[in-house]
Amino acid sequence: MGHHERISSKLGHFRPSLTLELKRIVQERLAAGLPVYDFGLGETKGDLAPRIGDAGAKAFHEGRTQYADPAGLPDVRQAVLAWLGLEGQYQVENVVITSGAKQALFNVMLAVCNPGDAVLFDAAPWVSYLPQAAAASTRHVVVQPQAGDANYLKITGDDLRRALKQEPGARVFLLNSPVNPTGQVYSADEVEALLQVCVEQGVYFLLDRLYWRLMFDGNAYPEPRVDDDTKPWLIQVDGLSKNFRRTGGIRIGWSVAPTDVTKAMINLQSHYTSGPAVPTQHAALAGIACPYSNELRDDLQHKRDLLLREAPKMRGVRVWPTAGAFYSFWDVRALIGKRMPDGGTIKGSDDLAAYLLKNAGVVTASGAAFEQDGYLRISFATPDDHITGGVAAAAAAFGQLV
Ligand code: PLP
């Protein structure tokens, strides 16, 4: 049996998650004593809130380690509704607690898609969406905005309608807002237009709102319309990982979905994870059951502003404004095709990201990983001196390209 036959054709071409690969490179450089300005991984820094850690530790100490409801602990499911302000519109029966938002998204695809169905994504899909779609035996379609990047790659209802015409069998449209990687936020009108198209066409509207508390400039999160018209098609996914510090490894997420879809996802979970770890569900509960402090959001807004002040030092880079999450998207198309000091040519954003890392110790994520070659994603959830030092180092490295 040849090597290529040992792994399924579905998974054989998978590459490891790029963002986790970046974390590995950073650690290697640090171990070697080389400078690193880490804009790579989408993870906030700082301390875990004591109440979250204490609740998890307490659950362990009290022996809350038995099998539990595969849908998640009832208290956590209820708390999710309050956290999302959806207590009036949904019941606990509509909520599934998962091992991170990743699993919630994957549950949805497995629950509603048949093999070969199309799943549609916005123009800069986050790195794990397409592998998830492939693992769920679906086909992915990246919807392109007719306006190009004039509205920062946000797609419109008309863009979606056009794409659905080509894909009459589409099952799901996934919208991520705030958007990882672009840092854009879809306005209430923009969300409504997309939701309306999905409802009209009987396509699930899957909203990944993982960064929804991290909205800048005093703006509130533009909530999707939840009523009898939209509820059969609306599925929302969220989690603990981004809106609280140091919680990505707690691995708790959730979905709020129609009852039939939720039932299918609970059945599925009962067969493959039996639900997320119980102590970490207690930790998550302690996070979301308290009034939310905007301390993290305010800190990130300060970092965004710092980055925007420093950015003009870089020639050839157009830095997009960031409305939410902690990503800055850099249009580096003007640098593609330039020559490096060693004589090699920058052929795309993969090359540029590698050049920055090797020559300046600046860790970025290549736009190519998000289907957008010619851009770099910068995670500014990083210490202030990484922002100032990193932009200066990047500016110097860009300045050596001819
Ligand atoms: N969705 C988006 C847009 C993300 O950026 C991430 C993580 O980076 C996830 C989902 C997965 O989140 P979790 O770590 O909760 O599984």
Radius of gyration: 21 Å
Please list the strands of the largest sheet in the order they lie side by side.
Answer: 2-8-7-6-5-3-4
Distance from first to last alpha carbon: 49 Å
Q: Which oligomeric form is depicted? A: single chain
Fraction of residues in β-strands: 5-15%
Class derived from helix and strand content = alpha/beta
**Low-pLDDT segments, ≥5 res:** none
Number of strands: 13
Mean pLDDT equals: 95
Order of helices and strands: HEHHEHEHEHEHEEEHHHEEHEEEH
Sheet of most strands: 7 strands, mixed
- What is the 3D shape? globular
Give the proportion of residues in helices. Answer: 25-40%
Number of helices: 12
Bound ligands, each once: pyridoxal-5'-phosphate
Task: Characterize the structure shown.
This protein is of the alpha/beta class and 402 residues long. The chain contains 12 helices and 13 strands. The protein has a 7-stranded mixed β-sheet with strand order 2-8-7-6-5-3-4, with helices on both faces. Helix 6 (157-166) packs parallel to helix 7 (188-201). Bound molecules: pyridoxal-5'-phosphate. Pyridoxal-5'-phosphate (PLP) is lined by residues 42, 100-102, 126, 176, 180, 208, 210, 239, 241, 248, 253. Pyridoxal-5'-phosphate binds at residues 42, 100-102, 126, 176, 180, 208, 210, 239, 241, 248, 253.
Short description:
This protein is of the alpha/beta class and 402 residues long. A 7-stranded mixed beta sheet has the order 2-8-7-6-5-3-4, with helices on both faces. A 4-stranded antiparallel beta sheet has the order 9-10-13-12. Helix 3 (74-83) packs parallel to helix 9 (278-288) and helix 4 packs across helix 8 (259-272).
